[in-house]
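Lab meeting minutes (informal)
Scribe: AK
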Amino acid sequence: MSESERTALMGYHELLGMRVVEWTEELAVVELVADERHLNRSGIVHGGVLTSMLDSALSLAGLHCATPGRVRRGMTLSLTTTFVGPAGAGVLRATGRVRGGGRKVYMSSGEVVGADGELLAIAEGTFRRRSGSESPVGLPE
């Protein structure tokens, strides 16, 4: 795992089993292998899991930092998720892309697809870079 992927991880990612598989300027991809722990009483992946994946991918898309030993931090201001189809066990992939904004506030959109490429959920959100994270150089870790 690269340094930037380690920086993106937090306890909540680890709890759910998420991992960052791609992260560049204005793009982030997060994967999760869904199993019985992620299912609701109907036997499908809980919507909160999909929303968490989208929140992470959309937020990280605007927080990439290529400078070693530094990090950019942010917070979600709003997030709207639309569920398109049921997700079963297996690999789920959330992709987030920055669509616009400025130095502090940015907007991202994205989607979650299943192992067969079927669309499961879409989202759009507004995020704010924390103080000091406005610059692509970021802050010391």
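Next up, CB showed the second protein from the same session:
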Amino acid sequence: MKKYVFIMNQFKTGGVETVLTNLAQSVEIEIDLLLAHPETDQYLLDRLPSNVHVVEQPISVPRSAKGILKAIQVGKNYRRTCQGQVPVAINFSDTLTSLLIARTINPNHYYSWIHCNPQALLNAKTYPLYWHLLKGAEHVAFISKAQEELFYSLKQSRRLDQSKAIQCYNFLIGQDHSDEEVKVGQPFFFSAARLDLRSKDYPTLIAAYKKLPVAIKDRYQLLIAGDGDDHDQVAKMIEQAGLNDRIKLLGTVQDVRPYLQACTLYLHASISEGFSMAILEALSQGATVVAADCPVGPAELLDNGKYGYLYQLRDVDGLSDQIQVALEKPFAPTVAKERAQKISQTGIASVKEFLA
């Protein structure tokens, strides 16, 4: 059985943790999971299968210039434990820290898996070093075609060898129907995402809901699952809109399937994506999706509107209008589920070909 060491920035809250868990369950490989920072959600760790071993390492890499030296030290420490049998190192987070650790562990055989909108990587002051390290990667994995195309259209990527690119769609496994019931008391729209205003467009979501006809707001609540650093700001937006009785922040929900099964519509307001596991999960439960046509991922997942409704980024009127259209013409649950199944089958096949 092949062995890899996956390096992640942390193991907390995000969809990337679900991606790794699904990957480990689907491919017969052995995985050492090395975390740069100690922040974890125990329930996510508990979901990891037995072929994943979480490496205990005493160093927490600071988010500062000193972090570069610490990251190199973490990589060297792990390499010493390998006794000459150093596995391929896979950077599985969109951070310089995790990429540097991967490169230090195995300079000749390291991969980098990109999960975000590539343009977001340019926001970091250290992006020139990030691109330099990507140039030495044996492979760069992308989770959507649009993501790869955007990455290689950037001027920073012109010196990188595109023949090293690998397509690995994210996928779901074990997304069976849940028997748990959601006790809300009335129909509702549902959204699940980090409360992070850098990448999630809560201002547009809240404003678009407010613009809906009174009859629709009276009938449908909006429930939002998730937590994050911007919780208080999002809560304040809801209060200022006068919607405290209509929009509810649920906090972290470990299993969103009952909500996805019960919701009338799934609303995905995002500024930036690389794929969107949330949309794939919604489709897998038969939900009708209304999503921002943001870079990148949603349009590809929904096949440009064939399997869900799209609105232009930050378009309050567009989102409000598409919600009303979706209420009139929802997608059949079987159509949504078949789309999710097809995407997941493609993703599983590509990951097995790449890693097994």
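CB comment: The longest strand covers residues 3-8.
No objections, moving on.
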